[in-house]
UniProtKB/TrEMBL annotation:
Source organism: Neogobius melanostomus (round goby)
Nucleotide-binding found in the keyword field: yes
Coiled coil location: none
Molecular functions (GO terms): GTP binding
Keyword GTP-binding assigned: yes
Family assignment from sequence similarity: Belongs to the TRAFAC class TrmE-Era-EngA-EngB-Septin-like GTPase superfamily. AIG1/Toc34/Toc159-like paraseptin GTPase family. IAN subfamily.
InterPro entries: G_AIG1 (IPR006703), GIMA/IAN/Toc (IPR045058), P-loop_NTPase (IPR027417)
Keyword terms of this UniProt record: GTP-binding, Nucleotide-binding
Organism superkingdom: Eukaryota
Domain AIG1-type G: 16-219
Name of the protein: AIG1-type G domain-containing protein
Gene3D superfamilies named among the record's database cross-references: P-loop containing nucleotide triphosphate hydrolases
Length: 223
């Protein structure tokens, strides 16, 4: 039986003024840089080599307008087998950081010529994450300045079947980030975050949470 990472969401009625965002992606995708861009500060370690600069889940909170934003940067979840013990441990750590629940996932990919490794990220995410989690996911492409002149993001995505399928499963929610242009412009990024995922308009009223019971059942912690 196929094992799915238990990002299983359910709704509850608790009011919540915090916007909790989990960044996912393989090492080198630009997750940590994107997190720094969103918050307008260098709070997350950035590593430009093949070794991940993020070895544990890291959480940072900053206020914005009437709601605070909590970003959870994760290790390269797609660098190893999703069923590996270390992977399961970090998933659990991520869930602890996200209590009482996640509002959205940002799946971070680079704008570049897709290789079999990048295609594997799209496949793993589609295969191992629940369909409901995909409904709360936005695909973010970093290094937007690498797009060929005159080519739109939609056109670039359309040229790759696996990528277009992934974006479609995420409700068509995708965004290209140019860190150079957005650096330090927290209000602009916050506005994008609020507009890119329509479900957030209801979140302060109805909320969104992760089932800890399902997590424990799917990922038993060994003492």
């Amino acid at each position: 039986r196929e094992s799915k990472l238990p990002f299983l969401l359910f709704l509850h009625t608790a009011a919540d003024s915090s916007m909790r965002i989990v960044l996912l992606g393989k090492t080198g995708s630009g997750k940590s840089s994107l997190a720094n861009t969103i918050l307008g500060e260098t709070l997350f370690k950035v590593c430009h080599g093949a070794v991940s600069g993020t070895t544990d889940c890291q959480s940072e909170i900053r206020g914005a307008q009437e709601r605070s934003v909590q970003l959870i940067d994760t290790p390269g979840f797609f660098d190893t087998d999703p069923d590996a013990p270390d992977m399961k441990k970090e998933v659990l750590n991520c869930m602890i950081e996200c209590a009482p629940g996640v509002h959205t996932f940002l799946l971070v990919l680079k704008v570049e010529r897709f290789t079999k490794h990048e295609l594997a990220v799209a496949d793993v995410f589609s295969q191992h994450f629940s369909e409901k989690a995909l409904k709360y996911t936005t695909v973010v492409f970093t290094q937007g300045d690498q797009l060929e002149e005159g080519v739109t993001l939609k056109e670039w995505i359309k040229d790759n079947h696996a990528l277009s399928t992934l974006v479609e499963k995420c409700g068509g929610r995708c965004h290209v980030s140019n860190e150079v242009q957005l650096k330090g412009q927290f209000t602009q990024v916050y506005t994008w975050l609020c507009s890119s995922n329509y479900k957030w308009t209801d979140l302060p009223r109805r909320g969104c949470c992760l089932s800890k019971d399902l997590l424990r059942a799917a990922l038993p912690v060994q003492n």
